[in-house]
Amino acid sequence: MRSRYTGYGVTIALLLASTAGATVFTQEILQRAYAHWAPSLCILKFTQEVADPRTGELQQQNGNALALVVSPEGLLLSNGHLQRENITTANFRAVMQRDDREVEYKATLLEKPKDINVAFLKIAAEEPLNLPFVRFTRGSSLEIGQEVAVLGLMGETMDFHHSLIVARISAIIEEPRTAYCLDNALRLGYVTGPVINAHGEVVGVTGFELSVGEGGDLYTRSGHPMVFQSDLFSHYIDRPPENRTETEETEEAWLGVLTQPLAEDYAEYWGLDSAGGLIISTVLPDSPAAAAGLFSGDIIRSFDGQPIRAVLDRDVLLFTQMVREKKINQTVEIVIWRDGETKTLSVHLGARPRSAQDAGEYTDETLGLVVREITRDLRILLNLGEDVQGVIVRRVISGSPAQIARMQPGVIVLSVADMPVAGLEDFKKSMDVLLDAKPEEISIFARAGTVTGFFRVRPRW
């Protein structure tokens, strides 16, 4: 039976015990589906570099995921989590069974779709391919309580063997677009697995939406395994995305405030007639907000004519996204509440400063240090004032003089041999001077957390 909760767009199934135990799949259907579609599955192997936003340090790890061959020429469909902020994924290899032997192909990651959390890749081969592939049935719908079969891969200890599970549609979320929820947890090897109905048709793939913290939209439904119906992504199979281009990141507009939502208890405290808004907790120095006269404690109620009704933490991201989508140098009006009065201020938006992920860095082989510029987001994260000038250690090379001196990633270098370091250029110049002088020992004045002190480094000239 169905019941709809108005305003939430969620349809929930109340399944009777007798219905829950029933199945619409016959053994013949499952075996036929397994035999027909399993050859289209492959293991996608790759390497990832994950950047620590505090230090910029990169950690490399190997990974694997399920991928589907969705065209005979070698177009692959896989997990959208391959492409996220602060993560670089590369060196893709698609491993599949062909003629009773394992074959490995190199693959290239394509531009990620913006409207669904899947990734597409293209196999690179010297000769034309004619691979077994998944053919999706379009225009299908699923019902509450309906059983579906999902193909996937078992774990590495089971040699990534092809596998099949049966799940049930437990809920249908109808806003902002129809989404089908599965009733059980989904192991990694089944993410992006083909979803098969009782007729043996492949009607979609399993997946997870990106959370807000991973760069997803405010209204995506993250954290629960879902079925992405084929109509959501089939057009990308007809016209595959372009190859990714390593271009510079598009500049985004910037206001320069840190905020928190105006929940009901805060609204009651200030005597406001309604909740919803953004409390400015910090105005960053030299920012457009500071220039416009915004202060900590101001409450933003409207931005460029759009009411701000933030009451949850996740609503803050929506406001940030709203600002970023404006044009750099655009002037907007912000309506605030301050000291019991409503005021309207004009703000001239600037360009978003470079982030830790985009920061410039320099490798010094003599000391064995990789250092990086201190960006504004790093200052916020580490609570560093503008008076703290220097470079931050991203990596200490194993066995180097810096490692012997017990330097660590995250240490901020303030000066080298009494030469002040305000940034990367100062650090490079100081090392050039020392390269000519070749002293037996170099004193590095640095900051670790709130503590300052000296490291004594003995370089190998």
Core attributes:
Thrombin, subunit H, Pdz3 Domain, mainly beta, disordered N terminus, six-stranded antiparallel β-barrel, 461 residues, 9 helices, single chain, 3 domains, seven-stranded antiparallel beta sheet
Describe the structure.
The structure is a single chain. With 461 residues, the protein is mainly beta. The chain has three domains: 1-247, Thrombin, subunit H, CATH 2.40.10; 253-351, Pdz3 Domain, CATH 2.30.42; 356-457, PDZ domain (Pdz3 Domain). It is built from nine helices and 29 strands. The chain has helices spanning 17-20, 27-37, 234-238, 264-270, 288-292, 314-324, 376-382, 401-404, 424-437; strands at residues 2-5, 10-13, 41-51, 58-69, 75-79, 87-98, 101-109, 118-124, 147-153, 162-173, 179-182, 194-196, 202-207, 226-229, 253-254, 257-261, 278-283, 299-303, 306-307, 331-338, 341-348, 350-351, 361-364, 369-373, 391-396, 412-416, 419-420, 442-448, 451-457. Strands 23, 24, 25, 26, 27, 28 and 29 form a seven-stranded antiparallel β-sheet that branches. Strands 9-10-11-14-13-12 form a six-stranded antiparallel beta barrel. A hairpin with a 6-residue loop joins strand 3 (41-51) and strand 4. The model is unreliable at 1-22 (pLDDT under 50).
